[in-house]
Design a protein that fits this description.
Layout lengths: L3 E6 L2 E7 L14 E3 L6 E2 L12 E3 L6 E2 L12 E4 L5 E2 L12 E4 L3 E2 L12 E3 L6 E2 L12 E3 L6 E2 L12 E3 L6 E2 L12 E3 L6 E2 L12 E3 L6 E2 L12 E3 L20 E3 L22 E4 L6 E4 L9 E4 L2 E4 L2 E4 L1 H8 L6 E3 L1
Parallel strand pairs: 2-4, 3-5, 4-6, 6-8, 7-9, 9-11, 10-12, 12-14, 13-15, 15-17, 16-18, 18-20, 19-21, 22-23, 23-28
Antiparallel strand pairs: 1-2, 24-27, 25-26
Length: 343
């Protein structure tokens, strides 16, 4: 079947029609090349989904919108260039394009799950005006080895590079203030990363299972590190906790057994039940701990059985607060008391 045409209505490329004006599903890989004409402003949802023979597609400068799944499953597509005027990109617009190797962005945004499962993607070139990369944009791009962002980028979404198992090196933008949750989850080849000097937040599970990561140096602007942020970073040897850090979340360094020394910053406001297990399964030889945190009186959550009850004269009594003793700190954080040095 070789007779097909683009179905364009009021500037929207909706789909492809066959010679009888019926929607054409390219099951035989007939369509190998697309040149979308100038004047088209949008490509509809799933317009070319599973066109498995499609190798090249040229987009016009007039294009502003690429719909959900527009090229999902185009397994022969090798490279694409997103036009500068494209402002809206739908979910999984280019998901599961297994042969896609190169992407060039001339525009300012990257869409949600945009390249999920593009296992051969190796080169990504961003526009110098890029401002936002949406969540899970490059999840499971298992061939991607290096990424460098322009300093114009202000936001990188949740799980953006999760499960990118070949990713070794990342250059984050200087203005970035948050490493979002799951951003580098399961990036098992990630060896180094430069933390921006103005960063404030490292989200939950941000570097979980980054088993090749050896060192983290964070600026003192960081005030929050989420739960499990560095969980199971088995080869992490050195980490400095920010001097601006306000609280310790649970399991942040769980299973980081190669770290021998750590300093808890004086900026920590208190150690309470939200800090439980922060350093479980570690082998610290020395822990520098601020004296001011010992003997604090901390409030306890109602009906939280591990801490909120005690027995007095044979009766169970609900506690509203408790003294933060060194023993309690060690039990909460999973620390060996013998390794602690107060300062």
């Amino acid at each position: 079947m070789s007779n097909w045409r683009l179905n364009i209505v009021n500037g929207i490329l909706k789909n492809v029609l066959d010679e009888n004006d019926r929607e054409f599903y390219d099951r035989d890989g007939v369509v190998e090349s697309l040149i979308i004409p100038e004047g088209v402003t949008a490509i509809g949802k799933y317009a070319f989904s599973n066109f498995e023979g499609l190798k090249t597609s040229v987009f016009p400068d007039s294009l502003t919108t690429i719909g959900d799944g527009a090229f999902d499953g185009c397994s022969s597509l090798v490279s694409i260039q997103i036009p500068k005027n494209t402002t809206t990109i739908g979910v999984r617009a280019f998901g599961n394009c297994g042969s896609l190797e190169e992407v060039i962005f001339l525009n300012d945004v990257v869409g949600v799950y945009m390249f999920e499962g593009c296992n051969n993607l190796k080169k990504v070139v961003f526009s110098e005006n890029l401002t936002k990369v949406d969540k899970y944009a490059f999840i499971s791009c298992k061939g991607l080895e290096e990424v460098s962002f322009p300093d114009s980028v202000k936001t990188i979404g949740q799980g953006c590079f999760a499960n990118c198992k070949s990713l070794k090196e990342v250059h984050l933008p200087a203005k970035l203030k948050a490493i979002s949750s799951d951003m580098f989850y399961e990036c098992s080849s990630l060896e180094q990363i430069d933390i921006p000097s103005k960063l404030k937040t490292i989200g939950p599970n941000a570097f979980e299972n980054c088993v090749s990561l050896k060192e983290i140096s964070m600026p003192d602007t960081v005030t929050t590190i989420g739960a499990l942020a560095f969980n199971n970073c088995k080869n992490l040897e050195r980490i400095n906790l920010s001097k601006g850090l306000k609280e310790i979340k649970e399991f942040i360094l769980n299973e980081c057994r190669k770290i021998e020394e750590i300093q808890i910053p004086e900026s920590i406001e208190r150690v309470d039940f939200m800090s439980r297990g922060a350093f479980s399964c570690t082998d610290f030889k020395k822990v520098l701990f601020p004296h001011k945190l010992v003997s604090q009186i901390i409030p306890l959550p109602n009906k939280w059985s591990k801490w909120a009850y005690t027995t007095i004269d044979g009766k169970t009594v609900e506690l509203k607060e408790q003294e933060c003793t060194l023993d309690l700190i060690c039990r909460t954080l999973d620390l060996n008391k013998d390794t602690i040095e107060l300062y």
